[in-house]
Amino acid sequence: MISKSLAKVINVLPEKWFIIIARKLANGYIKRYAQLNVEGFENIDKAKGAKIFICNHLSNSDGLILNKLLKEKYDPFFIAGVKLSNDPVTNLGAKIVKTINIKPNSADKDAIMNIVKTVRAGNNILIFPEGTRSRTGAMIEAKKGILLIARLTKAEIVPIGMEGSEILLPINKDGDMAKEKWNNSKVTVKFGEPFTLPLKETDEDKHQYDDRVLVYIMKNIAKLLPEKYRGFYS
After folding, report:
1. Contact 139/229 with Cβ under 8 angstroms?
2. In what order do the strands lie in the sheet with 156-163?
3. What region holds the Phospholipid/glycerol acyltransferase domain (predicted)?
4. 125-156: per-residue pLDDT in tens?
5. Which residues in 128-217 belong to E strands, given as ranges?
6. pTM over 0.85
7. What are phi and psi of 104, to 5 degrees?
8. In terms of DSSP bridges, do strands 99-102 and 125-127 run parallel, antiparallel, or are they unpaired?
């Protein structure tokens, strides 16, 4: 991956040139290092109207890969933690995809309403429900923000299973990119069948229902992955 010093130079360029150069760099790295295998792409069109794409999260390359696959036809807004813009390297990725920033681990009502308005206006969004990259490759417990967004938008959800990007762009024990280096890797991206939230059962309280639905959402991702990636949702 590019060095932080080069990233800082690119970040001060005029926006037009910044986007052109950053996009060329990102696409060049993906083409050079990733052997992309895409399955189930045709499932996306089974969903009607604006879509919520959800995916497990392995590395900072995930957003760039998904943007490359989805931009031409579906052009989603990525829901991204504001801290991404604090690092010159990850800031490159955050700027070449369409993003809606949200404060992690907080009730960011303004961001939630912005997301809902975006979907109701007919735009697609993409969320990593775990809220952060997995340091082991195995899925971790999801945040409940996806429940609120799905309820308020009533949009169909398209699950995506990603494997191999943790080798393409690994992270170290602190959750940062390991030596900022890309590696050759086969990356498989599987698109599953669209779904909507199940109905509440008569004997469930809100807490029980939320827990059940969150597991249901995440298992729609997990079933697209090999066992070793399923982690919390095995």
Report:
1. yes
2. 34-39, 185-191, 156-163, 51-55, 125-127, 77-81, 99-102
3. 51-165
4. 999 999 999 999 999 999 999 999 999 999 99
5. 156-163, 185-191
6. yes
7. -65, 150
8. unpaired
Task: Give, in degrees to the nearest 5, the angle at Cα 104 between 140 and 196.
Answer: 60
Above 80 in pLDDT, residue 104?
no
Classify residue 15 as exposed, middle or buried by CB count within 10 Å of its CB (0-12, 13-18, 19+): exposed
Residue type at 76 in one-letter notation: P
Query: 93: pLDDT confidence band, cut at 50, 70 and 90?
Result: low
Distance CA 101, CA 228 (A): 31
User: What residues are paired with 86 via a beta bridge?
Assistant: none
CATH of the domain at 15: 3.40.1130.10
Element at 9 (helix H, strand E):
helix 4-11
Helix axes 4-11, 88-96, angle to 10 degrees: 50
Spatial distance between the Cα atoms of 7 and 86, rounded to a whole number of angstroms = 12
The two three-digit tokens of residue 60, written as one number: 């900072």
Number of domains the chain contains: 1
Average pLDDT over residues 160-182: 74
Domain that holds residue 220: 4-233
194's tokens: 């669209």
Residue with tokens 């309280």: 205
**Beta-strand (E) ranges in the chain?**
34-39, 51-55, 77-81, 99-102, 125-127, 156-163, 185-191
- 10 and 18 in contact (C-beta within 8 Å)? yes
Structure tokens at 200: 């509440």
Beta bridge partners of 39: 190
